[in-house]
From TrEMBL:
Top-rank lineage group of the source organism: Eukaryota
Higher taxonomy: Eukaryota, Fungi, Dikarya, Ascomycota, Pezizomycotina
Region described as Disordered: spans on this chain: 355-383
InterPro entries, per database record: Kinase-like_dom_sf, Prot_kinase_dom
Basic and acidic residues compositional bias, start-end: 365-376
Name this protein carries in UniProt: Protein kinase domain-containing protein
SUPFAM superfamilies given in the database record: Protein kinase-like (PK-like)
Amino acid sequence: MPSRTASNAVVFDEGCGYFLVKALTHGQKAQSYITRSLEDGKLYARKKLIADYVNLVPHSDVKFANLVHPLIAPELIDSTQYTHVKDALYFRFCNGGDLRQVIDLYTKKEEIVPEDFIWHWLKTACSHIASLHYPIDYRTAVDPLIHRDIWQGNFFLDWPNPIPEPATFPQILLGDFGSAQYVSDGDMGRGPTGIGNDIYSIAFVLLVLLLGKPLALAGNNVQQNEVWDLIPALYSDEIKRVAVELSAHVVGTRFRVRDEQIINWGEPDTLELARQLIVRGEEMLQRFAEEGRPASDLRWTKPEVSGQPLFFDDAAALDEWCRTDNEARPLTGKWHLVPVQKGTLRLLRRSNRLHRGQYQRPAKRGQEDDGEEGHQAKRPRRG
């Protein structure tokens, strides 16, 4: 377990070096951590792709990360390419966590997610999707891009520092492009795997926001005309109407349904639909302001992150932390447990790798390297 008195910290030997700060929820495709750069002291999200999965299924995070505008997705800051494409990616850290965490916090308090925040999320999410599908303003590439994995856990919140008074809503970004793909001619207007999949995945997340939990619309579980009555009465008819309209299209995109439902499923003009929802969101937020409703304050949902590295007494303590706090998974990639001066975070061990104030990679690889030795592919920062 982490220690308050020990002075050993994990340093990932990637880029200029990163301290391990906190483990995040791991997925099927990758392990994620909050890290602190030895170069600038800022926090970054480290995403280490899982080799067994990536070797079987091509992963798109690296391919598309440089193409998506930082106003849409967390910016890729750094990457280290390992053998067998087991890349380690470092993204801009979003200090507000993800949308799933916000929903869970309100559910635990037995409160509904504020409607004005839902409208803010809806218009932002639709704007992101429209920009990916019709990349005129945001990307140099002209090929439409489908995200293909839109759910509440892939929307990230980022608060300004410091947060102004009165508090504004956090910025909302769409992350995890590991399943993304360009739209082929055959997908432009065809069913569940086509370009409409993203916009109707928005409907799925909207229902989760309104209900506080996922709702399966497949089969005979819930009929589309029952959605209105399931939404709490505290929400406006306008948001209920949007949910009902969009829920009609959820079948055939996210859930297992009868073959004839998929065959008969129609593809609308997703750009026009996204634009309509953006306008609705802006109009509703303006109406709330004109009615004198104060904007909902979501600052309490912002996770507390110390920004300090985790410290361990020894390797055994690190192993115990992996069992209890890292979902029983070992750390992967090239990393070292090194002595650190707590007050200054100066690395104390001296070697050809560790120097005063910075972390330096070896000039070239040797035959003794075990295959996890990465080569740097640092992405230039945007000016």
